[in-house]
Amino acid sequence: MKKEIIQTELQYKAVRSSGAGGQNVNKVSSKVILSFSIENSLGLNDDEKKLIKQKLSSKLTSGFVLILNCDEDRSQLKNKEIVTKRLFHILEKSLVKPKPRKATKVPKSVIEKRLKEKKSTSEIKNNRRKLDF
Known about the structure:
The chain contains five helices and three strands. The protein is an alpha+beta fold. Strands 1-2-3 form a three-stranded antiparallel beta sheet. Residues 16-32 form the Prokaryotic-type class I peptide chain release factors domain. Keywords: Hydrolase.
């Protein structure tokens, strides 16, 4: 993943924030919407694109575009920084390959303990029965 190349491919759009906030909300476009096309990115190789598509499938549009919003701050510039950091964090997180799980053997002592426990429970239940003469 080449952050410098990806940084140039990002598309920002400033819109008005929703919700309460008085006069500032009605006249200032501080909310930032970031869109990043994974399919057309030159900063990602084919393996990275495939991995991102798999892991972020629920967050992508049908054209493999990742869209993120930020309206946390009153400043458009800060919102732009926040949403950019968020994008790179999501991309880095999705590129981490999980370690393969190694299957372990169940120890003999655990198997023996379970069988002893079963046997003792069986004996207890057998002792509760009425004797048949």
